[in-house]
Amino acid sequence: MIKLHRCSKGWLKLEAEPCWKVEKALRDMGIEYEAVHGPWPRSKRTVVTENTGQSAYPAIEFENGTWYREESADMAETIRSGKLDSKR
To answer: How many Cβ atoms are within 10 Å of 50's Cβ, its own excluded?
Structure first.
């Protein structure tokens, strides 16, 4: 199962919210995932930074240990177009 590394505002379900945009795309496409709510301060997002080179959320961690991170609109489009596996 993939892991969606996202902000701790899981209750905020607004279309403009980047983490929700990607989470909604995963849900809409029926992709199973585990939400990993990370720290709010960017300086404490060491796991995401070490694996993506960026401190921004959201990021997807695949079962094989690879990571995927782009702007949330691009991530949502990749998911909705069925191309998420190509990012492994």
So the answer is: 9
